[in-house]
Fold this protein.
Amino acid sequence: MRIRVVVADQAEARFYDLEHKEDVPRLAGQMSDPVAHLHDRDLKSDRPGRAFDHAPVSGQRRGSTAHHGIGVEHRPRRHEAEVFAHKIAEQLEHAGRSGEFDRLVIMAPPAFLGLLRKALPQSLQACVAAEMHKSLVHEPLTVLRAHLPDEAFGNALPPGH
């Protein structure tokens, strides 16, 4: 049984392969999102447009009417994290179609784990054997191995596989 372990956060992802819990995970690939390291001010060019509540009454100055911002306020950092989660999902989908793994273990901080879940296609969701909501991207392999959940190494394949 081939297991792909994804260790990710909103800026980096590492993919490891192993077959048994005792194996030393082998690095199968990695990705990074350089945009994740930018400041919010660098991610967003300017504020939304402005609009006046109504046209000024004749004889009034235009600036004396109330005006406000239009459009929805977007959170650029979250948007970039969603884009990166989709890139990770695409990489995993390609590897899954190529038969590189049978099971999938995902390790990510809680908020990013949720984004990854939403980004995974149904075919990959069926391969997920375990999830760990921890930030382990910058930890050594010994820490990663210690956190590998036992259920990922069970004898039966996940449902739908």
